Amino acid sequence: KDDMQGVKVTTLNQDLTPAGATWTAHETRRNWNSMASSSDGTKLVAMADQIYTSTDSGATWTPRESARMWKSVASSSDGTKLIAVEFTGQIYTSTDSGTNWTARDNSGFWQSVASSSDGTKLVAAGYFSSIYTSTDSGTNWTARENSRSWQSVASSSDGTKLVAGEQNGPIYTSMNSGATWTARGNSRYWQSVASSSDGVKLVAVVSGGLIYTSTDAGTNWTARESARWWTSVASSSDGVKLVAAVSGGSIYTSTDAGATWTPSETNRNWQAVALSSDGAKLVAGAAGGQIYTSQAEIDLTYTPAANDYSPRRVRRLMRRPIRSPPPAVRARAL
Fold first, then answer.
1. By C-alpha distance, which of 154, 134, 159 is closest to 144?
2. To 5 degrees, how large is the angle CA 110–CA 34–CA 171?
3. Helices (H) and strands (E) in the chain, counts
4. How far is CA 41 from CA 179, 199, 282, 293, in A?
5. DSSP for 68-137, written as a single string
6. What is the CA radius of gyration of the chain?
């Protein structure tokens, strides 16, 4: 038997409710189209008419930079170094969590960006453009691969393994920081790609098609879920916890590396998702809607011992603070 603040109990069950079960709305309705998260999920960056940043896991947001046709954003692991692109403009970088921004490289039809965990190695891709890489946090850029209709890019933590999806083309992978690329899979409308920290587990979504996962750095792919208008996908650092968004549909989460998926939240025009490295904190944005956050919770279930305190007394005692609780704790007495 355990003793908690003088209450004897016969059982103490601890269950984890994964992130994605419940969601909280934040910010004003805007056309949110891209998001990124620091490793711990505390520092967030989101795009709409401007760039918006949060330092409290999405509770409050601050507008940054000027109004532009912002298209994609990525973050270093600590949330300090950011990279953002305009659809018909330049690449921008920040070294102070989005407070100040510096324009980089030439204008282009940029579609997607990705960053190594330290924010040093960057990759950017766009329509009718080469893939560009940087090894100095965006100061200088080198053109890679052929000009294609690139839709999405993702990077391993060290920036060595890269994956890129083409509109109506194959998926491409690189094992040498973008110096050379190999075509993988069939030609599809690859809408969004994401990578585990080691670059071994990959996930990609097809607009109007399926979800595809890989456990060998993109050599082989397995079809998952049903055909939907997938818009965005993100991965935890171990590649086990995934989140994907559907335009005009739900948000879907997976806790088994994409083998099975669970829908959550109301049908909205979801456009962007991001999550912390452990998959415990999620953030999502909808076009014409708000920003939504979700967090994993610990459920503690106590069963009082016979002839002990009354159930009412037990419930009142269990509402007292518990020492060193997880980020979110819910306790209920049976």
1. 134
2. 60
3. 1, 25
4. 31, 20, 8, 10
5. --EEEEEE-TTS--EEEEETTEEEEEESSTTSS-EEEEEEE-EEEEEE-TTS-SEEEEETTEEEEEESST
6. 21
Is residue 65 within 8 Å of residue 101, measured between CB atoms? yes
- Strand order from edge to edge, sheet including 44-47: 34-37, 44-47, 51-54, 62-64
- Residue whose token pair is 């709409």: 48
The 3-class SS string of 238-273 reads CCCCEEEEEEEEEEEEECCCCCCCEEEEEEEEEEEE
Count other C-beta atoms under 10 Å from residue 43's C-beta. 24
Matching residue, tokens 């079960």 = 21
Contact 272, 231 (CB under 8 A): yes
CA–chain centroid gap for 311, Å, is 41
Number of other CB atoms surrounding residue 1 within 10 Å = 9
Close Cβ partners of 91 (under 8 Å, ≥ 6 residues apart): 83, 84, 85, 103, 104, 105, 110, 113, 124, 138, 141
Tens-place pLDDT, residues 103-137: 997 789 999 999 999 999 999 999 989 999 999 99
To the nearest 10°, the Cα dihedral for 150, 156, 160, 161? -60
The segments of the chain whose pLDDT lies below 70 read: 1-16, 299-334
Total-model pTM: 0.85
Residue showing tokens 């050599």: 219
Distance of alpha carbon 35 from alpha carbon 113, whole angstroms: 11
Q: Which of 111, 25, 57, 12 shows the shortest CA–CA distance to 291?
A: 25
